[in-house]
Design goal:
The chain has helices spanning 7-31, 34-44, 80-85, 91-99; strands at residues 56-60, 63-67, 74-75. It is mainly α. A three-stranded antiparallel β-sheet has the order 1-2-3. Strand 1 (56-60) and strand 2 form a beta hairpin. The longest helix has 25 residues, at 7-31. The structure holds zinc ion. Residues 48, 50-51, 53, 68, 70-71, 73 line the site of zinc ion (ZN).
Length: 101
């Protein structure tokens, strides 16, 4: 009978996968020309990664949260999730309550 992985194992493998994906993205970006990267940014910047509609920047305390009012997706920039995790314990619940429909 296979042993159920522990939370620590799950976190280890998730972190390993994230590190590999980050390295692949960095390698791909290095190989792409600067002009191609600029065109990609123009095409995708502040558009929802799920449905393609415009994202709206919503200020919530010290964070700027990108919100899609079409599919109701909520997105954070690099470092913002870490900033949220370091806040008071009910902070995430309050963020969700702000955007809950
Ligand atoms: Zn969307």
């Amino acid at each position: 009978m296979p042993k159920k992985p522990s939370h620590e194992e799950d976190e280890f493998f998730a972190k390993e996968e994230a590190n590999q994906l980050h390295a692949l993205a960095q390698e791909r970006a290095r190989k792409m020309k600067e002009e191609e990267l600029e065109n990609l940014k123009k095409l995708h910047f502040m558009h929802c990664p799920k449905c393609g509609f415009d994202l709206k920047a919503i200020q919530f305390k010290s964070l700027t949260i990108d919100k899609c009012f079409h599919c109701n997706g909520t997105f954070l920039d690099a470092g913002e999730l870490e900033a949220l995790a370091g806040k008071e314990s009910d902070f995430l619940h309050r963020v969700v309550a702000v955007f809950k429909r």
